[in-house]
């Protein structure tokens, strides 16, 4: 079998119009997850730039970031830290709110999830406006983490999420 390419991943992503609301084209990654070769290949591509031994923890964002983040942590043999929506984590947390088109969201992290100076890589399925990732960066900075990079399977370039993340290296496999 030839190695999986970003074009293979792109071909498997399902575009669902008007979900979860009119005007949004949802990028459905479940066909990638359901295909063992593509899922494994996607993990290889997501971590292709990671120098062995250069990361202490993977940070995964609620909820699809948990899938890629946990797989990455196991593959690299490092810890995994979930960043969750407010009210889901049981221990003491730091919280960070950010604006949405309508209203706002809040993400949270356990106060002891990352120790000062630890090198972290943030993973999520998709970079849209960058609001979620930028709020997560603020939480990580509060804990004193060293952010090595932010890697996404998909990037919606027309939303320019990178503009909110300009202090850190951002990589994506499939861009629209
Ligand atoms: P944002 O904070 O705008 O960058 O949104 C990022 C989060 O929203 C990611 O965790 C995605 O899972 C989700 N998301 C935003 N837009 C889409 C989309 N068009 N298709 C699938 N997921 C999306």
Could you explain how this protein is built, in words?
The chain has helices at 6-12, 30-33, 36-46, 64-76, 131-142, and strands at 14-17, 25-28, 57-61, 79-85, 93-99, 104-110, 119-127, 146-155, 170-175. With 176 residues, it is α/β, with parallel strands linked by helices. It has a single domain, classed as Rossmann fold. Strands 5-6-4-3-7-8-9 form a seven-stranded mixed sheet, sandwiched between helices. Strands 1-2 form a two-stranded antiparallel ribbon. Strand 7 (119-127), helix 5 (131-142) and strand 8 (146-155) form a beta-alpha-beta unit. The longest helix has 13 residues, at 64-76. The two termini are 27 Å apart. It binds adenosine monophosphate (AMP). Adenosine monophosphate (AMP) binds next to strand 2, strand 7 and helix 5.
CATH A-level architecture = 3-Layer(aba) Sandwich
Whole-number total of structural domains = 1
The name CATH uses for the topology is Rossmann fold
CATH class: Alpha Beta
Provide the succession of SSEs.
HEEHHEHEEEEHEE
Question: Outline, from the CA principal axes?
Answer: globular
Mind summarizing the main beta sheet? Answer: 7 strands, mixed
- Rg is 16 Å
Give the helix proportion (percent range).
25-40%
Query: What small molecules does this complex bind?
Result: adenosine monophosphate
Number of helices: 5
**Distance from first to last alpha carbon:** 27 Å
- Which structural category fits the helices and strands? alpha/beta
Averaged pLDDT, please?
Answer: 97
Number of strands: 9
Strand neighbour order, sheet with most strands: 5-6-4-3-7-8-9
Low-confidence stretches: none
Strand portion:
25-35%
């Amino acid at each position: 079998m030839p190695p999986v390419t970003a074009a293979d991943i792109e071909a498997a992503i399902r575009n669902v119009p008007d979900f979860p609301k009119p005007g949004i084209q949802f990028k459905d990654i479940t066909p990638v997850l359901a295909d063992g070769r593509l899922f494994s290949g996607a993990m290889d591509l997501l971590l292709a730039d990671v120098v062995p031994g250069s990361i202490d923890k993977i940070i995964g964002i609620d909820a699809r970031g948990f899938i890629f983040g946990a797989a990455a942590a196991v593959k690299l043999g490092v810890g995994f830290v979930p960043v969750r929506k407010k009210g889901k984590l049981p221990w003491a947390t730091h919280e960070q709110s950010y604006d949405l088109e309508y209203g706002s969201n809040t993400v949270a992290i356990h106060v002891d999830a990352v120790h000062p100076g630890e090198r972290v890589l943030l993973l999520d399925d998709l970079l849209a406006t960058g609001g979620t990732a930028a709020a997560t960066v603020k939480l990580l900075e509060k804990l004193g983490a060293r952010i090595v990079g932010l890697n996404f399977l998909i990037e919606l370039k027309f939303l320019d999420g990178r503009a909110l993340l300009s202090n850190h290296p951002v990589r994506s496999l499939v861009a629209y």
